Each structure stands twice: as C-alpha cells, then as structure tokens.
Automatic annotation (TrEMBL):
Catalytic reactions of this protein: D-sedoheptulose 7-phosphate + D-glyceraldehyde 3-phosphate = D-erythrose 4-phosphate + beta-D-fructose 6-phosphate
This protein's name: Probable transaldolase
Family matches, as InterPro entries: Aldolase_TIM (IPR013785), TAL/FSA (IPR001585), Transaldolase_3B (IPR022999), Transaldolase_3B/F6P_aldolase (IPR004731), Transaldolase_AS (IPR018225), TSA/FSA_arc/bac (IPR033919)
Enzyme Commission designation: 2.2.1.2
CDD domains in alphabetical order: Transaldolase_FSA
Gene3D superfamilies per UniProt: Aldolase class I
Biological role stated in the UniProt entry: Transaldolase is important for the balance of metabolites in the pentose-phosphate pathway.
Gene that produces this protein: tal
Record pathway: Carbohydrate degradation; pentose phosphate pathway; D-glyceraldehyde 3-phosphate and beta-D-fructose 6-phosphate from D-ribose 5-phosphate and D-xylulose 5-phosphate (non-oxidative stage): step 2/3
UniProt source species: Anaeromyxobacter oryzae
Keyword Coiled coil annotated: no
Major localisation: cytoplasm
Classification lineage: Bacteria, Pseudomonadati, Myxococcota, Myxococcia, Myxococcales
Amino acid sequence: MKFFIDTADVGEIKKALALGLCDGVTTNPSLVAKTGRAFEDVLKEIVGLVPGPISAEVTATDAEGMLAEGRHYAKFGKQVVIKVPLIVEGLRAAKTFADEGIKTNVTLCFSPVQALLAAKAGATYISPFVGRLDDVSEDGMSMVADIIQIYRNYGFKTQVLVASVRHPIHVLQAAKLGADVATIPYSVIEQLAKHPLTDVGLKKFLADWEKVPKAPK
C-alpha cells in the first residue's frame, strides 16, 4: 500500500520524504488555507520536492470551470493529479480529463455506488472519506471494502485511495483490505511508529547497557 501525505505543509512533506514514507501528496482548499500561502506557490514547491502523484483540487463547481482549472494545474508537472468532487459536474470533468490523458482523483466519496460512477468515468483514484463517515455513526471502512469488491468484480483500474484517515487503525484496516493508497496526516504517520512496549524495551536495553563494563580508552 502506498502512503500519500495529506497536507499542504512543505515542512511536513520534507519530514515524510526523509522517512521514505511519502509516495505522493494530497492537498485540498482547507489544507492550503492553513498555510496562509497562495495555492499555486505551494503547488509549485511541492512539485519540486515530490516525484510521486500530487493531487491539486479544483474549486469550480461546474464542469467547464473544473476543466479550465485542471488543465492549468496539470501544466505544473507530470505528477500533478487533478482532484474533482464527486458530483455530476465532477464526473463530467473526470471523463473529459481521462480522454485528454490527465489523471484525476475523485474526492468526497461517501458511498460505493458513487465510487462505481467515478470508475466508469475513468477516474485514476477514488477517495472514500472514512473518518467523516465514522463521525456520523457509519462504518467508513465497510464502504472501502465494498468499493474494493466492486472494482475487483469488474476489473476497474481506478485505485482506491483511503482518505479522511484519523488514526492508525484506519491505516491497518486499509492495508488488510488491500487498498491501493492511504493518504495520511503527518501526525498519524508518526503515531504508526509508536508503541508503548517499544519505549519500555528501549529504556531497559539502554539501562542494561550502562551496566556493561567498558573497555579502557
């Protein structure tokens, strides 16, 4: 399973790259707003850092507007993926982008049938939002399981990109289900490496090492 980092913070991206845990990046208007920077400046910098897929989200809600924005962002680098919302106009744009050879990430997916439509439109990635479904007492990972089954049934090439990841259990479940990608906040990436028994074991090893006689210098 590939790890994308869900951020527009260049500092976080650099840290994830240094760990070898950044196969790509997903951004959205909310993440960009947190940086206080112009989106195109942020996108250009990320393109210069990350060789893998970089999702750049459009803000238009009509197909023609999405196409204009997406074609513009696609010129920033060959790794740019255009992120469109899962609405009828977004599906229209995704189909046109697919015909033009521009990769897409269809986002804000909350049901398996929505994901089916995105795949039929030729989406490169589908982004089911598991955390937001959990927030309203639905099972986000069950949706992911259904999407993966549907795609396998019919041989769709659209990759399942698990989004709205809130904690390590989401990552574990995505990996067990066979999702292609999980896009993860950097804070959750750090949590993946942590276990209390690791800390306890390291502390004991170091304490025991202090008791080992040292050779004279």
